[in-house]
Every structure is written in structure tokens, then in C-alpha cells.
Known about the structure:
Number of strands: 0
Distance between the termini: 136 Å
Radius of gyration: 39 Å
Structural class: mainly alpha
Shape: rod-shaped
Order of helices and strands: H
Amino acid sequence: xxxxxxxxxxxxxxxxxxxxxxxxxxxxxxxxxxxxxxxxxxxxxxxxxxxxxxxxxxxxxxxxxxxxxxxxxxxxxxxxxxxxxxxxxxxxx
Length: 93
């Protein structure tokens, strides 16, 4: 005949060990997942930064082109305004 208390204690110890093993595995899995996702997020952020830098460079280049075009138009309008002023001055006298 076996001692029932000894069997219950052994079963309880085995259950405790199984529970702590499951907790350890879950914690390890969670940490690995956390670090993996963190590295993925960092990689995506680096890619996004590179794409944004390229986009900003493109916008800067287009802005420089637009500024050049506006400067050319402004000089043409200044020339036209001076010719108009001289024309009006001739007819004012």
C-alpha cells in the first residue's frame, strides 16, 4: 500500500515544475518576440528615413527649379514694367 500524502506531494511538485517550465518558455518566447519586433521596427524606420530623405531632396530640387523660373519671370516683368513706364512717360508730355 502506498502513502497517499507522498503521492500527492510528488504530483504537486511535478505540477509546480510543469507550471514553472511553461512560465519560463512563455517569458523566453515573449522576450525573443519583443527583440525581433524591435529590430524589424528599427529596420523599417531606417528604410522610411532613407525614403523620406530622398523625397525631401527631390522636393528641394523641384523648389530650386521653381525659384529659378520665378526669378526669370520676375526679371521679364521688371523689363516689361520699365518699358511701359518709358512709353507712358513719352506720351505724358
